[in-house]
Specification:
single chain; 267 residues; alpha/beta; eight-stranded mixed β-sheet; 10 helices; 16% strand; disordered C terminus
């Protein structure tokens, strides 16, 4: 199954594939792609999201198979946010020799059951809005965005909404696919020992997604292959702390852009 694809940069440059989280779309990575000079950046709309097919199945294997079918099986730096981080981790476990570097942005590698249940229940009701402006306002309220510039969020979400026949504005994603994804995030992931590739883990300082229950095991398995950076704000690190996150990624993958490193901290 082929997914909708976003592309930036020279196809002859080293390749980066970016995977978004639930309720988002591949265009979420456009500002980051503008900072990753010297790389060919690709981002898909996941199954059930954006302009990709919405029909099931929506399990992890189906997502991974569709990603590989769309971008091909070749050497690729992987960047994944939230559920996209889990998918990037799964792809790296499938073929670690094809992943020279892995970037996990506040990843949902393994959600505790009660967290996954609460998120899935929250995703079930219809989310529709009188206008795009109301959608943005509610996104700040619902997502507890901390310091994301409004213009950045507006530019990100504008192509990811549509107006229905009832005149109300909705995100371009399947609620059923989102609920299914939260169930997948609570399923056992591959072992950290099976994903021994250089990894950058970027965590939001005030994120609602827990990672402390995994961090010691991740460090024990990877040792010096794992770098951890804490950035200000919450779960949406490319909104709340774009400059810090982009600078850390640029340094890690080796690109000319080293600007704007600031209050990100290693631990």
């Amino acid at each position: 199954m082929t997914l909708a694809l976003h592309e930036w940069g020279d196809p002859g440059s080293p390749r980066v594939v970016c995977l978004h989280g639930v309720r988002n779309h591949g265009g979420h990575f456009a500002p980051l792609a503008g900072r990753l000079v010297d790389h060919h950046v690709l981002a898909v709309d996941l199954l059930g999201h954006g302009h990709s097919p919405w029909e099931p199945p929506w399990d992890i294997d189906a997502h991974c198979d569709a990603i590989v079918e769309t971008v091909g099986a070749r050497e690729t730096i992987l960047i994944g946010h939230s559920f996209g981080g889990r998918l990037a981790f799964e792809l790296a476990a499938r073929a670690p020799k094809l992943v020279p570097k892995l970037v996990l942005l506040d990843p949902a590698i393994l959600l505790p059951g009660h967290v996954a249940l609460a998120a899935a229940e929250s995703a079930r009701p219809d989310k529709s809005y009188v206008s795009f402006e109301e959608l943005i306002d509610r996104r700040y309220d619902e997502s507890a965005l901390h310091s994301a510039p409004r213009d950045l969020v507006v530019a990100d979400l504008a192509p990811h909404v549509e107006t229905g026949e009832d005149g109300r504005t909705r995100y371009r994603y399947s609620q059923s696919a989102v609920v299914a994804a939260y169930g997948e995030m609570a399923s056992p992931p591959p072992r950290f020992e099976d994903v021994r590739v250089p990894t950058l883990l970027i965590l939001g300082e005030q994120s609602y997604l827990p990672y402390d229950h995994l961090l010691d095991a991740h460090r024990a398995a990877l040792g010096d292959l794992l770098g951890v950076v804490i950035v200000p704000g919450g779960h949406s690190v490319l909104w709340d702390a774009f400059d810090e996150t982009a600078a850390a990624i640029s340094r890690f993958i080796g690109t000319r852009d080293h600007a704007h490193s600031s209050s990100a901290t290693a631990r």
